[in-house]
Amino acid sequence: MADLSVNLCGVTLKNPVIPASGTFGFGREFDEIYDISCLGGVATKGIALTPWGGNPVPRIAESSGVILNAVGLQNPGVEKFIAEDLPWLKGKTRVIANVVGRTMEDYEGVCERLNGLVDFLELNISCPNVRCGGMAFGIRPENIEEITARAKAKCPSTPLIVKLSPNVESIPRNAQAAERGGADALSLVNTFTGLAIDIERRRPILANNTGGVSGAGIKPIAVRMVYEAAHAVSIPVIGMGGITCAEDAVEFLMAGAVAVQVGTQNFTDTRACPKIIAGLNEWCDAHKVARVADLTDTLQFNG
Amino acid sequence: MREIRATVLENKRIADEVYSLTFAAEEEIVVRPGQFCMIGVGGFPLRRPIAVCKAEGERITVCYRLKGGGTRALAREYKTGEKLSVLLPLGNGFYVKESEKKVAVVGGGVGIFPLIAAIRAYSKHKQVYAYMGFRGRAAVCMEYEMARGEKLVIATDDGSVGFHGTSVQAFMQDVDEIKPDVVLACGPTPMLRALKSAMHGRNIPVYVSLEERMGCGIGACLVCVCEKTDGAHARVCKDGPVFEINDVVL
Ligand SMILES: Cc1cc2nc3c(=O)[nH]c(=O)nc-3n(C[C@H](O)[C@H](O)[C@H](O)COP(=O)(O)OP(=O)(O)OC[C@H]3O[C@@H](n4cnc5c(N)ncnc54)[C@H](O)[C@@H]3O)c2cc1C
Ligand SMILES: Cc1cc2nc3c(=O)[nH]c(=O)nc-3n(C[C@H](O)[C@H](O)[C@H](O)COP(=O)(O)O)c2cc1C
Ligand code: FES
């Protein structure tokens, strides 16, 4: 039995496996299938200052090895989260509140409200927003640094994770921008912007036209990006993108991640996360690894 | 609601492009009519939502029409003895009050399959009148199951069997005579819209089972929403798939 616990910003997670934001709600539904207290943490659905309605349907499409989604960040708003979901979730496992906004003030407001109430805040800076003319905050390094600094000023007591978008010019530069802004950790990747076409109708499948690509097919790109981010900063990195099994999680850890998130695979296999936790334990035992934390950043590049 | 590893007992063609799949769950599963399951198909990231037609203890039967890659792979690759990952039972299902004795069911397309579960359940204690629409003769299936009630009208688009027209048209010819206490419907959205306008002002409750693309199937991801008439969003997989027809925007 390997020691699966990991330390993230001074907070102990019982294992490095966290369901990714938007694929797990606030955990209640999955808890009907298995006891979610086995998880290292739960990254909640993106939470805004006020409730958001989200996009029209269809909101999901499938392509080989991947899916596309355009849910549009429908969410009940921070007050309802605090009143109804947080009390239920708290204590079961670590709570990573994913934060979304359209303006700087939205992000600041949610961070301020949740400061000290959750274990981590995770800033989703991939949402299109007013300030950047509809472009995400998470594209340009200067915007990333500014939003991180302003959010961090509002949540001094809670570690702030900045979740990076992969639809950018340079992952290392954006990772460093978040670090300069005061991020306590990074997570990546969010989804890649994609387009799936219904060729009979000559129209996009998604009502939103484009959507975020996730799932097994994005894994090699995500692993590369996690490696780049982890080697550009000194704060911890949470890796994700296409993880379907324990071996995939090991890749991310070796590339430099301290913990991992699992998104799309929760749809393919409702018990994906507990299976990955069990698989990590088996893998460590079989490879004589005493602590899963010892796997982080053990990749040796060819000379 | 649980995730099971089921064993395929039978997966056979029952009509043009329509298959009936029976699998053995690991244990007895109680399924209400109108509830559905999410079937994992190897190689496809998303499970496919399919209504439960019959639930007899451990034996569950679903019927599906070949549509795209997922249903085709299901028909091709899951022979007797194969294992299948299934989430079930999902959704709210139909609900008919004790006092509602006359139940009309109106179905079209793949919407007939959840209604078969309703006919099986309610024909034991109630009078069930069924109006089921098909494209043509080659598509007609499960007549034996549909005929359990007081009356069965098969409607075909081309008139090759039964009533020439839609199941809604066939039902509206009879509605004032049978005076149902409640109507249960499932089918393509244009069909449900036609039913809604035809039933307007009749003061008979109509429940519809909706279809929407799904991610998780259990209420967590907010992928499958429909719009309610009060402007709110409801999850088809968890709050539905069955809604009162006037509560949802079709
Ligand atoms: C609650 C519910 C019950 C259903 N019951 C039945 C049934 O009993 N029998 C039956 O034949 N069909 C039923 N359907 C429709 C069935 O889910 C689709 O035909 C099937 O998912 C198509 O998969 P595919 O891979 O063949 O098609 P593709 O078009 O290749 O599928 C691509 C993606 O779109 C989704 N999708 C495509 N069409 C639909 C649709 N109409 N509804 C929801 N998702 C869709 C698929 O699940 C998949 O994720 C039901 C749908 C819902 C929501
Ligand atoms: C349906 C869906 C909804 C998502 N919603 C959010 C969200 O609200 N906030 C966020 O930061 N990421 C969201 N994501 C992105 C995931 O958290 C994750 O970054 C991405 O899916 C890559 O991981 P995966 O390949 O394991 O799915 C969503 C993904 C999916 C599939
Ligand atoms: S499919 Fe996830 S909420 Fe309905």
Which key features would you list for this structure?
heterodimer, A: 303 residues, alpha/beta, TIM Barrel, 8-stranded parallel sheet, 4-stranded antiparallel sheet, 9 helices, 31% helix, globular, B: 250 residues, Elongation Factor Tu (Ef-tu), domain 3, Rossmann fold, 2 domains, 7-stranded antiparallel sheet, 7-stranded mixed sheet, 5 helices, 19% helix, 35% strand, binds flavin-adenine dinucleotide, binds flavin mononucleotide, binds FE2/S2 (inorganic) cluster
Bulk shape of chain A = globular
In CATH terms, the superfamily of the largest domain in chain B is Nucleotide-binding domain of ferredoxin-NADP reductase (FNR) module
In CATH, the homologous superfamily of chain A goes by the name Aldolase class I
Bound molecules: flavin-adenine dinucleotide, flavin mononucleotide, FE2/S2 (inorganic) cluster
Strand order of the largest sheet of chain A: 3-16-15-10-9-8-7-4
Through-space gap between termini of chain B = 28 Å
Structural class by secondary-structure content of chain A: alpha/beta
Global mean pLDDT of chain B: 96
Identify the CATH architecture of chain A. Alpha-Beta Barrel
Count of DSSP H/I helices of chain A:
9
Strand tally of chain B, please? 16
Greatest interface: A-B, 34 and 27 residues
What's the CATH C level of the largest domain in chain B?
Alpha Beta
